[in-house]
């Protein structure tokens, strides 16, 4: 009894001492004199890089400049956004359709840029919806979401959307294993080992970016966490970190932390392709949505697909191999040469680095220590290049600078550690504020990193910014890594909880055919109005279609009468401008959907059901010109049975019978 | 004792003059560049022999604020006449080689100078017309303000700076004038001191 008490006191004292000694130095100590200069981008000057940062639980993607940390744009992907009408206007509503119906929100965790020959090419950014599993493609010509595909047989789409070196596939591994869609899900939860399966999805990407689930691999029920594609010599392989190989279904924080080693699963997707050609895949019924935004009709369509091709990892022995990895691995990163695979056991006190060549030898010589649910398990030492000793506490993610160095984030010890990939020696370490998760080096997971900056995405920012209530700013930090020592040059707040991010040289994207405006002549929207002379209002029963145009500084028509209670009014508004940076907005008093934000040459549709009789002003919400405030109009709503004729006009007053 | 004919060199030069006239049919003659803080990339209006080019739609959109009428190629009879005139000039230059009389070149030079003066006067007239003939219902009215672009050079028009300068075709035409002048000077020995 007494002994226990002393022990407890001792533990608390030691714990406090550890905490105090671990307390990071303040920013004054960490920032050296020329930091401000290195992060400074003069007014009117462009940033060197675009940084595409996941918005975490905001479901959006934010775009920052590097090294300034300036926020340029928030791109709605999986969450409705009233600012842009995304998910509210008729054109974009189908983008958020799923097999569960309209899901207006998601948890966007990771971003991945398209690559050609293993180098970022500036065409698209992919993002994952973690909650209701989906993958989105964002087009960098317009910085808008162009396509979203739902993933069947999945739950918690976490190891996603990582890509192969020519953007052949975007992959997605399920975090939660669940009973397959075509099996009965109404089973006792504690039959996890028997009934729950993990599916990996390989989504084919076409020349124009169009996505299609080529196949899924059915794997044992574990939690797939993160992944990265092989490159160079390991092109054709994919690596996934797995935890909960204990296959627990309750209190995972204890029950999934039992084993000293979990796995990194190596998947030979070229072999999988061969099996598909040989007819080994099974078409399995399921249901998932595929949503595509058409650039010439400015309208998205949603299609529900009903089957998916599945390969069974248990049957086809040489697609998947397990590599033991200490302990509860999180990050799974492949170096620019494609030879080294870095596992990050988040509970491990070292970083294991595996060798692709050794893995191939081990497979060839059958250096297996057994099977895991039908999948061969390679001997740890047979695949191991070596271990980074005492790197820090809680390794999560690693990126590379292309000069033979790796940079790993440590969540528990709140730092970034630089180490040599070959010798595995620790070279440098810097504190982060605080609890860093992912990190990004522009091109840092490609064959050609631009090893100049490193951005750390932190989970906690206590004392770093002015407090904003219980919820504080999310944060990123930029380090200059061009020298031997990492140097902190800037802190900047972010939206949502930043997870993974990607970055590319600004010129690569700007010179990749970036769009300035939509050509009116090419506008194939079914309700387009190409000139003021074509504007009209058409009634068809209770449906009223308003073909409206806007140009600086008026709408045509701007007086509409004859709308009645019970009508469903569709405002199809075409922005006639053909000039860069002249969007117009559209809003109606009391509209319960959102505003519209219409780009030059674009058509957008707002659906509106009047809720009362009376006069409803509408106006432009985007300050477009000196006469923006004059850009307005009126809608008159009459009772249901009223005989007010449907009329519309611009610039001419109709005779007013009661004002003679 | 002096011949009235022209030298071989002058004939070669006349051939070039013909080419310059013909060439200017296909390139813009004149340009008006507009600059404003909100148009950092600049706007340009180009006058070809047969049409208006450049950012006409954007400029027309802007003009409506101050009540300037919009520009449309079909409203200018000049665009019907000018290609014919340039074509004729090219043809005459060729003919002069065969006519082979120095007096012919002299007359052509003076005709050409006359044409340039006339064209400048016409351009000025249009500029004046567009700059002054404003819609009384215009949204922006600045007392005493006219929006007449300069004939040549720079002028500030409210928030826009306007440069009116020759474009490629203009320089080709200038080249033609210089060559013609050179031929006349040479053929009449104007630079030689009188005995
Ligand atoms: Cu407007």
What can you see in these coordinates?
The complex is a heterodimer of chains A (660) and B (195). Chain A is built from nine helices and 45 strands. Chain A is mostly beta strands and 660 residues long. The longest helix of chain A is centred in the N-terminal third of the chain and has 21 residues. Chain A is globular. About 4% of the residues of chain A have low confidence. The model of chain B has no long low-confidence stretch (mean pLDDT 88). In chain B, helix 1 runs antiparallel to helix 3, helix 1 packs antiparallel against helix 5 and helix 3 runs antiparallel to helix 4. By secondary structure, chain B is α+β, with helices and mostly antiparallel strands. Chain B contains five helices and five strands, in the order αβββαααββα. Chain B starts with 7 loop residues before the first helix and ends in an 8-residue tail after the last helix. Helix content of chain B is 51%, strand content 16%. The chains are: A mainly beta (660), B alpha+beta (195). The interface between A and B is small, with 11 and 7 residues. The structure holds copper (II) ion (CU). Copper (II) ion binds next to loops of chain A.
Write the layout of secondary structure elements.
The complex is a heterodimer of chains A (660) and B (195).
Chain A: H1 2-22, H2 27-30, H3 35-39, E1 49-54, E2 60-66, E3 71-76, E4 97-98, E5 101-102, E6 108-116, E7 119-129, E8 134-139, E9 144-150, E10 157-159, E11 169-174, H4 192-195, E12 197-205, E13 211-220, E14 223-229, E15 237-243, H5 252-255, E16 261-268, H6 269-277, E17 282-294, E18 299-312, E19 320-326, E20 329-334, E21 340-345, E22 350-355, H7 356-364, E23 368-372, E24 375-378, H8 380-383, E25 384-389, E26 395-400, E27 405-410, E28 415-420, E29 426-431, E30 436-440, E31 453-458, E32 474-480, E33 487-494, E34 501-505, H9 506-510, E35 536-540, E36 543-551, E37 554-556, E38 559-564, E39 568-575, E40 584-588, E41 596-598, E42 603-608, E43 614-619, E44 632-638, E45 647-649
Parallel strand pairs in A: 13-18, 36-39, 38-44
Antiparallel strand pairs in A: 1-2, 1-34, 2-3, 4-5, 6-7, 7-8, 8-9, 9-17, 10-11, 11-12, 12-13, 14-15, 15-16, 16-19, 17-18, 20-21, 21-22, 22-25, 23-24, 26-27, 27-28, 28-29, 30-31, 31-32, 32-33, 35-36, 36-37, 38-45, 39-42, 40-41, 40-43, 43-44
Chain B: H1 8-23, E1 30-36, E2 39-47, E3 52-54, H2 56-66, H3 78-99, H4 102-132, E4 153-157, E5 160-166, H5 168-187
Antiparallel strand pairs in B: 1-2, 1-5, 2-3, 4-5
Bound molecules: copper (II) ion.
Residues 584, 620, 622, 624, 628, 631 of chain A line the site of copper (II) ion (CU).
């Amino acid at each position: 009894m007494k002994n226990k008490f002393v022990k407890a006191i001792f533990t608390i004292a030691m714990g406090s001492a550890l905490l105090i000694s671990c307390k990071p130095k303040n920013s004054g100590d960490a920032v050296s004199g020329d930091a401000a200069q290195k992060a400074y981008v003069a007014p009117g000057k462009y940033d060197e890089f675009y940084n595409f940062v996941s918005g975490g639980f905001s479901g959006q993607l934010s775009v920052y400049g590097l090294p300034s940390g300036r926020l340029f744009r928030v791109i709605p992907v999986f969450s409705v956004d009233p600012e842009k009408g995304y998910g509210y206007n008729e054109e974009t509503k189908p983008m958020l359709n799923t097999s569960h119906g309209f899901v207006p929100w998601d948890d966007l965790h990771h971003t991945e840029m398209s690559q050609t020959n293993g180098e970022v090419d500036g065409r698209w950014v992919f993002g994952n919806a973690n909650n209701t599993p989906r993958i989105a493609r964002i087009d960098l010509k317009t910085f808008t979401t162009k396509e979203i595909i739902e993933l069947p047989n999945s739950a918690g789409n976490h190891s996603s959307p990582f890509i192969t070196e020519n953007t052949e596939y975007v992959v997605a591994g399920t975090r939660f294993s669940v009973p397959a869609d075509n099996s009965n899900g109404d089973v006792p939860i504690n039959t996890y080992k028997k009934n729950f399966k993990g599916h990996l999805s390989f989504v084919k990407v076409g020349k124009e970016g169009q996505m299609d689930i080529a196949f899924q691999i059915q794997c044992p029920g574990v939690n797939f966490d993160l992944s990265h594609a092989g490159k160079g010599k390991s092109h054709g392989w994919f690596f996934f970190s797995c935890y909960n190989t204990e296959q627990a279904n309750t209190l995972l924080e204890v029950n999934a932390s039992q084993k000293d080693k979990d796995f990194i699963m190596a998947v030979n997707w070229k072999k999988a392709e061969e099996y598909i050609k040989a007819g080994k895949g099974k078409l399995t019924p399921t249901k998932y949505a595929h949503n595509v935004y058409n650039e010439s009709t400015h309208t998205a369509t949603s299609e529900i697909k009903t089957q998916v091709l599945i390969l069974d990892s248990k049957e086809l022995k040489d697609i998947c191999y397990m590599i033991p990895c200490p302990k509860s691995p999180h990050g799974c990163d492949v170096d620019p040469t494609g030879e080294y695979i870095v596992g990050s056991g988040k509970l491990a006190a070292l970083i294991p680095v595996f060798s692709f060549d050794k893995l191939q030898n081990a497979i060839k010589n059958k250096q297996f220590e057994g099977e895991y649910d039908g999948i061969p398990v390679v001997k740890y030492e047979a695949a191991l290049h070596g271990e980074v000793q005492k790197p820090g506490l809680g390794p999560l993610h690693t990126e590379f600078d292309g000069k033979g160095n790796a940079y790993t984030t440590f969540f528990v010890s709140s730092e970034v550690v630089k180490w040599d990939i070959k010798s595995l020696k620790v070279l440098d370490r810097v504190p982060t504020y605080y609890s860093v998760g992912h990190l990004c080096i522009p091109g840092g997971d490609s064959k050609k990193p631009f090893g100049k900056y490193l951005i750390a995405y932190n989970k906690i920012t206590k004392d770093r910014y002015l407090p904003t209530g219980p919820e504080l700013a999310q944060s990123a930090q930029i380090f200059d890594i061009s020298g031997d020592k990492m140097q902190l040059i800037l802190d900047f707040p972010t939206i949502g909880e930043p997870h993974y991010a990607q970055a590319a040289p600004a010129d690569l994207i700007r010179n990749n055919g970036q769009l300035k405006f939509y050509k009116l002549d090419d506008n194939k929207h079914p309700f387009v109005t190409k000139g003021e002379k074509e504007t009209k209002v058409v009634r068809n029963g209770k449906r009223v279609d308003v073909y409206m145009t806007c140009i600086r500084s008026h709408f045509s028509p701007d007086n509409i009468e004859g709308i009645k209670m019970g009508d469903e009014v569709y405002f199809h508004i075409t922005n006639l401008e053909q000039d860069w940076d002249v969007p117009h907005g559209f809003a109606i008093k009391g509209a319960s959907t959102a505003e519209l934000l219409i780009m030059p040459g674009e058509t957008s549709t707002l659906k509106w059901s009047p809720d009362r009789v009376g006069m409803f002003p509408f106006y432009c919400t985007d300050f477009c010109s000196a006469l923006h405030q004059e850009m307005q109009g009126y809608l008159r709503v009459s009772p249901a049975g009223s005989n007010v004729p449907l009329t519309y006009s611009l610039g001419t007053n109709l005779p007013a019978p009661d004002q003679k | 004792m002096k011949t009235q004919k022209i030298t071989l060199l002058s004939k070669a030069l006349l051939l070039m003059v013909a080419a310059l006239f013909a060439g200017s049919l296909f390139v813009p003659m004149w340009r008006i560049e507009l600059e404003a803080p909100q148009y950092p990339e600049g706007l340009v209006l180009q006058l070809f022999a047969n049409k208006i080019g450049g950012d006409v739609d954007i400029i027309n959109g802007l003009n409506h604020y101050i009540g300037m009428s919009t520009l449309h190629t079909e409203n200018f009879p000049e665009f019907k006449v000018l290609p014919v005139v340039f074509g004729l000039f090219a043809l005459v230059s060729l003919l002069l080689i065969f006519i082979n009389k120095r007096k012919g070149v002299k007359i052509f030079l003076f005709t050409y100078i006359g044409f340039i003066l006339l064209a400048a006067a016409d351009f000025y007239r249009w500029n004046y017309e567009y700059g002054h003939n404003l819609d009384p219902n215009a949204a922006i009215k600045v007392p005493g303000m006219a929006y007449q672009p300069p004939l040549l050079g720079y002028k500030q028009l409210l928030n826009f700076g306007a440069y009116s300068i020759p474009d490629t075709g203009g320089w080709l035409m200038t080249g033609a004038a210089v060559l013609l002048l050179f031929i006349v000077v040479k053929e009449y020995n104007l630079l030689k001191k009188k005995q």
